[in-house]
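Data availability (excerpt). The following record was deposited with the supplementary files.
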Amino acid sequence: MQRIVLEIPDSKFNFFLELLKNLGIKKVKKLSPRHMKYVDGLNNALDEVEEHLGGDKYLQDAKDFIEEL
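Predicted structure:
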């Protein structure tokens, strides 16, 4: 089983839920604003890692971070 996170405009939300129901998808969970903030932060972190791996961004390693403290 796989999971996805989608941002649906409020005006299309009920239509989208009906579509999922017609496709036989039974489990739908609406995330709270707190959870959405967490997901957004995680997505931003993953984007930074991708930029780092592509050579477009430098990320400080944990050892250097601890030494600065």
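Summary of structural features: The chain has three helices and no strands.
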